[in-house]
Amino acid sequence: MNKRFAILRVVTAAWISLVVLLAGCGKPGTPEQQAQEDMDSKSHLRASYDPIHFKPAILSASNEQCLACHREALEDRVRPASPAGVKAVDTRAWYQQVSTYQGEQDTFHRRHLATPMAKELMSLQCNTCHEGHDPREEAPGSSATGAAQDDRGFTLRKQVNPETTCLKCHGQFPGWELMRLPGTWDEVKHFFKNDCLACHVSTRTQRHLVNYLKADAIEVAAMKAMESGNSADVCMGCHGGRAWYRIPYPYARNPWPEMPEGTPDWAKDRPTHSDPRFTKTEPKS
User: Fold this and answer.
1) pLDDT (tens digit, 0 to 9) for every residue of the chain, 285 residues total?
2) Are residues 224 and 155 in the same domain?
3) For residue 169, which of 99, 115, 242 has the smallest C-alpha distance?
């Protein structure tokens, strides 16, 4: 047994020596090159810890400020073909399965910021989702500051918390249970001519009043679809049609005109107002 351990130590030492040797082969060979590498490393460190990446500066950062360095977020495009040879034009991505999305496949950030649908119906900003970094560690409660600060913005070392961002549009929407329909929308939509506004022209009449959506444009799109009896194609684009998660998002029950008094049992745990960060402010006259 001791002989085996001795052999293992020798082999391990040899591997370590080889790794160190190979690592050294990639270093600059001149002092000037080494100095330039050190300067680049320091520049990257300074950029990483720029105040714009942290609260409170990031809360007021504009898209132009973010894209000045992160241009690849919008410049990168989908590959014409996968490494296996599958052409993008011959396949349909999951987001292309609903009629609200038009056009070819596109990248994640472009779908939310630059596509015709994003420009028409959304007003997303970089800091709608990206709320900055934790200088220590992006995992709640794992650092010395964890117990003293609000860690809801960081989830399992991810820079975006899906519970407060992604679920708004990509969570499961248990609408048919909440509205006490006899089945899922796919099962009963023919009773309503596939028209969400058959009921919602008089129920919850104020919608989408948040700063990351264009409420008026969404209403226009739904009305146009209603004329053809397919308003659900627009509405389900977000409310269940693009669910990435099995978790439902607890939409706030902001008051609307002629809202019935009292709170139904299913809504007693729901917020009564949208997150202040996303509250749409009316322009001053």
Assistant:
1) 555 545 545 555 555 555 444 455 555 567 666 666 666 666 878 888 889 988 889 999 999 999 999 999 999 999 999 899 999 999 988 788 777 778 889 999 999 999 988 999 999 999 999 888 766 655 555 555 554 445 455 555 567 777 778 888 887 777 777 778 888 888 888 888 888 888 888 888 888 889 999 999 998 988 888 787 677 777 877 776 566 677 777 788 888 888 888 888 878 888 888 888 888 765 443
2) no
3) 242
- Please provide the DSSP assignment of 83-98 as one string: TT--BGGG---GGGGS
Instruction: Based on the fold, state whether residues 105 and 146 are members of the same structural domain.
Output: no
State the amino acid at position 133 in one-letter form: H
Number of domains in the chain: 3
Asked if residues 132 and 149 have their Cβ atoms less than 8 Å apart, the reply is no
200 shares its domain with 253:
yes
What are the residues whose beta carbons fall under 8 Å from the beta carbon of 49, sequence distance 6 or more?
A: 135
Whether 173 and 274 map to the same domain: the answer is yes
Spatial neighbors of 211 by CB under 8 A, at least 6 apart, are: 123, 278, 279, 280, 281
Number of other CB atoms surrounding residue 267 within 10 Å: 15
Q: Are residues 271 and 179 located together in one domain of the fold?
A: yes
For residue 227, give the H/E element and its range: helix 215-227
Q: Does residue 54 form part of some domain?
A: no
Provide the domain limits for residue 150: 128-165
Instruction: Report the run of H or E that residue 11 belongs to, with start and end.
Output: helix 2-25
